[in-house]
Each structure stands twice: as structure tokens, then as C-alpha cells.
Amino acid sequence: AYPEQNDGFGRLFGWAAERGLLDTLTGLFGVPWDDRRDTPPQACAFDCMIALGAPVQPEAGDGLHTMRLGGGRYARVRHVGAFDGLEALTDALLARWLPDSGESLRDAPLHHEYLDDPDEVPEPLLRTDIYLPLQDRD
Question: What is the DSSP string of 72-104?
């Protein structure tokens, strides 16, 4: 659920603040591994991620790990509004756009880039980009 995701992002920001890394923050991302509409909350996996402009290596016991996003081709669509609308837009991409696009998915995670701080931007104006990984073209 989104409140638990917010807690995950809070842990990341706390970790980065303790290490003096917040000034190097370059992005806020999320990887939904499960569909929260179909998966019980205790089984739903979602990676909360921050991008930093400084090299970091989490220490054992932090409960954190590094992950690299990007590379290759993506279809990107911008959602404006509450985070609860992300799944419907993703469904539309997969069910309506993808079959007629001539594109194919590749084995990489779909991810979100959160462009606004929900503590500072009203919910109807929140911007989130959804990245759908596409096969490379020959």
C-alpha cells in the first residue's frame, strides 16, 4: 500500500541524510514487482529507490542494496494525479498501446519515476513517469 511505500522512502531518506548524501539526490524511483490490486499486502513487493550523484555502497545490516535502472529502450508515459491511478495507466499501456505498437517487452523491470514531492505538491498535480522496458530494435 502507498503508506507503507512512503515508510520505505522515509527509511531511504533517513539513511541518505545520516551519510550526508541528500544534496546528491538526483531522482526518486519505484519498482512494483507485484500488482497491489491482486496481491495481499504482506506478499506485495515494491522497491523504493533513490538515485544519488555520489557512489555509495550500503553496509551490511542496512537492509538496503544497490540496483541499476535504465539502459535500453523504454516507452514512457506521464501520469498526473494520485498514485492510485498508476495501475490503470499501466494497464492501458499493456492492453491497448503495446499490442498495436509493434513493440515487445524485454526482461527488465517496469519502473516509476516520481517527479514531485507529495508533501509539497497537491495530489491532483503529482507527476509520475511510467517506464515500460522495450526490446531493442535491430
Answer: SEEEEEEEES-GGGHHHHHHHIIIIIHHHHT--
Residue 27: phi and psi, rounded to 5, are -175, 160
Spatial strand order of the sheet with 111-114 comes to 46-52, 25-32, 111-114, 127-134, 73-80
For residue 51, CA distances in Å to 48, 109, 134 come to 10, 16, 22
* DSSP H or E run through 50: strand 46-52
Report the first-to-last Cα separation within the chain, whole angstroms: 39
pLDDT tens for 48-97 read 999 999 888 888 888 888 888 878 999 999 999 999 899 999 999 999 99
Q: In this predicted structure, what is the pLDDT of residue 3?
A: 66
Would you place residue 130 in the very low, low, confident or very high pLDDT band (cuts 50, 70, 90)? very high
Q: Evaluate whether 91 touches 10 at the Cβ level (below 8 Å).
A: no
52, β-bridge pairs: 25
Helix, strand, coil shares of the chain, percent, nearest 5, are 35, 25, 40
